[in-house]
Design brief:
The protein has 116 residues and is mainly alpha-helical. It has one domain. It is 76% helix and 0% strand. The radius of gyration is 14 Å and the shape is globular. The protein starts with 6 loop residues before the first helix and ends with a helix.
C-alpha cells in the first residue's frame, strides 16, 4: 500500500483540510464569504478532499468511530463532484463552520490508534 493510501495518511489529510477551513473562515461571517469566488471554491475543494479521504478509510475504522457521521461526509463529496449545481453557499458555510469542527476531535482520536 502506497503511503498516501494508508489510513493514517488519509486521516492527516482530513485534519489538514479541516484546520485550513477553520482558519480561513475564522472571524468571518457568511455574508463576507458568500459570493467570494476564491473562498467558496477553496471551501468546496477542501470538503471534497475530506469526503474522498473519508470514503477511502477502511470500513472497520469508520465503524469504530460512528460519531464521524461518515455517510453524510461521503455524500457531500459525491454532490460536489457530480451535482455541483445543487450546492448552496449556505450549506457549504454550515459544513465548514458547524460540521467539520465537530469532526476534528473524531479524526484526532482515530489518529491516536496509529500513533500508539
Amino acid at each position: 500500500m502506497t503511503s498516501a493510501k494508508r489510513p493514517e495518511v488519509r486521516l492527516r489529510h482530513i485534519l489538514e483540510q479541516i484546520d485550513g477551513i477553520v482558519t480561513a473562515t475564522r472571524g468571518r461571517s457568511f455574508e463576507e464569504i458568500q459570493g467570494n469566488f476564491l473562498y467558496e471554491r477553496a471551501v468546496e475543494r477542501a470538503v471534497q478532499i475530506v469526503s474522498e479521504a473519508a470514503k477511502e478509510l477502511p470500513a472497520d475504522l469508520r465503524e469504530r468511530h460512528p460519531d464521524g457521521h461518515w455517510q453524510p461526509i461521503i455524500r457531500i463529496g459525491n454532490l460536489l463532484r457530480h451535482e455541483y449545481y445543487r450546492i448552496r453557499s449556505r450549506d457549504m458555510w454550515e459544513i465548514a463552520t458547524v460540521h467539520l469542527p465537530v469532526l476534528r476531535p473524531v479524526i484526532v482520536a482515530m489518529l491516536t490508534e496509529f500513533d500508539s
